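Format notes (please read before filing issues)

Several people have asked whether sequences and structure tokens are stored in separate files. They are not. Every record keeps both together, in the order shown below: the sequence lines, then the token lines. Line labels are part of the format and must not be stripped during preprocessing.
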Amino acid sequence: MTNRVSWDLFLMILAVHLQAVCLNLSHISGPLHELDTVISSLQNVVLSLPRSNHLRARCVQRLAKTRLKRYTLSGQQDDLEQSILGFTEAIYLPPSRDNTYFYGRNIFLIFYLLTLAILLRAMKSRQPEDVKFCVICLRYLH
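Then the structure lines:
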């Protein structure tokens, strides 16, 4: 019984933390229709860029963050799934060869937000696989 109570408390604390993180994403604000406009614009940019373009990683990461923010406001499962896919893609995109500017990704932030997104999915689905993936992501952050 104590394990169950401590697990629920742990999930609740992380969920509150995730909401605080998502609500403080500096480049994203406004109601759902504004987020939809940002998502649409970012999707168009991502689709127009080849995988080798250094801006693609930044746009994919921003799109994933925006979808995560939209999920916290709307609760639509598709936004959460697309966010998880976006963070995963951002991890696997090649780093920039141009060292004069930092166009790349913040890999620690990506893993952190991916972990929180998967945790949200785990809280809803109650699937042990999701918790396992959270632990794997946290190991990469360690």
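For reference, the curators noted about this record: Residues 2-106 form one domain. Confidence is low (pLDDT under 50) at residues 99-103.
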